[in-house]
Sequence to fold (429 residues):
Amino acid sequence: MTGAKYVARPWSCRDFDEDDCRQQVQESLKEHYNTAYDCLFLSAASTGAREGLLLAAYHSGDIRIFNWQRLCSTWLSSRAQQGHELSLAAHAGPVYALTLLDSPEHGLLLATAGDDGFVQIWRVADILAAAAAAAAGADNGSSAAAGQATAAAAAALRPAAAVQVPHVQNCLGISDGSQPAAQALAADQQQQQLFVGASDGGVHLLDVPRLLAAAAGQAAAAAASCLVPLTSHVAAVLALDYCAATQQLASGSEDGTVRLYDVPSRRCASIIHLQEELLLQEADLAELLRCAKSPPVTCVKFDQGGHWLVAGSGAAGLGGEQQGSLTLWNCSLNSAAKHRSIGKCMPQVLVLTPSTVYVAGTSKQVHTYSFQLEEARSLDVGAESVFGIAVDAESGMLAVCGAKACIDLLSAQGATLGVVRPAASVLMS
Fold:
């Protein structure tokens, strides 16, 4: 992949080129079956840039940078789409998670997690410089020259550091020995560390300053030692969230449980089976195996004070219909405060703001709830299955991404401000 963006042209019998037509078909088909798994806002205030950016992680292994202000302006004025400014070839496989870490020494950092098992650390200042160079090239030349400038800017970007998560034995002593995918990320800003959830059930703590120092010294063995394993799940970790107020980490897994970790002691403090409101023990292997048949826990989020945790779970029920639910967990009492069914939508992402819980998954809607899990309204989006939601802290704007590489930008009131859609396939039109 490169930063160059192929733009399909209308077909004409007077200007037919077989190679050009074939490329149009390939590019549009590839986009049609692409997926955006995660997204986040880079505000102008946090980066010192003139305009805010939106970053999105894709199944194709790239990270695309959008100028969301330009995207919204183009959509609102003419209902036209504005493409991405830059595309980074980040991982050899899907990119599942993005998060930011503000380092006193290295500035704002972007962490990415991929199916190849790598966690990569990128300097945001480098990304901004490359995006600015690509934008300048696009403004000052022909489309071919602009494509070359964008490709050159993207090719020059390299992660500041990278580490591959090792496979671990789960609490049952089982390990298949294959390379696990890095599927979930959470950041501890104060201690400058990341938490990584893996497809083999592993939960790892990553010392970011130490990793960057190891990368500067080109010491691969030292980079691997920056990862510290915590007690693992029986099955894949699908979601992580960290609460700075209580220094607790929550993980949700395919094994049907939520684990709460006390990060200073690196100890698993609680194993929670949401469906039956059970507190499990690490030594009770039979019970852990039984719970693994329960619906997977797909998303977890703390409130700001760490007193409450909202978790989403769901699976295919009888007849193949999906059934989803939300649980509000009282962390102080270690007990469930409320369960709520959300029908045929299996939740895949949730975001908490001080006033609203946003939930989305296997439907073309974002559902909004009060903190008591009372549904307020539903917002229609383009993605048939939603994997990522980001909220801009300054404007309250939502970015929603998912299947078929769809991205919707919504106001806090739910109005559509901009969209990104894959180019219509020549074969399908």
